[in-house]
Amino acid sequence: MGIIQNIEKLKAKIPEEVLLLAVSKTKPLEDLEEAYKAGIRDFGENKVQELTTKFESFHDDVRWHLIGHLQTNKVKYLVDKVYLIHSLDSINLLHEIEKNFKKANKIANTLIQINIGRETSKSGILEEDLEKFILEIEKCTNVSVKGIMVIIPVGDEESNRRYFKKTKEIFDGLKKNEYKNIQMNILSMGMTHDYVTAIEEGSNLVRIGTGIFGERNYNLGGVNNE
């Protein structure tokens, strides 16, 4: 099945209010063009260099999402190019984003990445550190948090559902509060193998790579977050 057919099949399963983000890391522009023809305008990249290269060479109406771990020394390259940073995962990174976007007089739209499975191999804020993190976000002038992103531990449907439920509880808890820089509009959870469960548990943005573009070489792709 081709890319366009894959997208049509996904769109038939995904409710209209859920955003389908095409994870295009390591994929050539020809593949992205196929997805674009099928109506995709949101593309997710893991690496800053790949995102900026594709930004320069692809359609102007595309919204680029940075979904991989973001190193502080790469933040400056994202100004004016990234639509949404999914991986705000530390106070150091927060300060670096604030500094670079302030310099350009721009607002960085971000999601807080939560390490819901408490995995040492994954980035993200632990639940008990959220309060302190939020206090730092509220001091910023050029960082806007739009919601939460998670990459859950590999497991069966039951454990997936448990992690998604827990994330949605945190999301709903934060939504009840009034903040200056934080709104809980986007809940980015769910990938090719578990997006149906994620949507059932409240996700409104799913990150699909393999389900659109087919299998990839994971040696090139870094962390599996699609």
UniProtKB/TrEMBL annotation:
Family named by the database record: Belongs to the pyridoxal phosphate-binding protein YggS/PROSC family.
Protein's name in the database: Pyridoxal phosphate homeostasis protein
Function, as annotated, reads: Pyridoxal 5'-phosphate (PLP)-binding protein, which is involved in PLP homeostasis.
Q: Where are the transmembrane segments?
A: none
In terms of Gene3D superfamilies, this protein maps to: Alanine racemase (3.20.20.10)
Q: Which residues carry this modification: N6-(pyridoxal phosphate)lysine?
A: 25
What InterPro entries does UniProt report for this protein, alphabetically?
Answer: Ala_racemase_N (IPR001608), PLP-binding_barrel (IPR029066), PyrdxlP_homeostasis (IPR011078)
- Taxonomic source organism: Clostridium saccharoperbutylacetonicum N1-4(HMT)
Q: Does the keyword Ribonucleoprotein apply?
A: no
Tell me which stretches of the chain form a coiled coil.
none
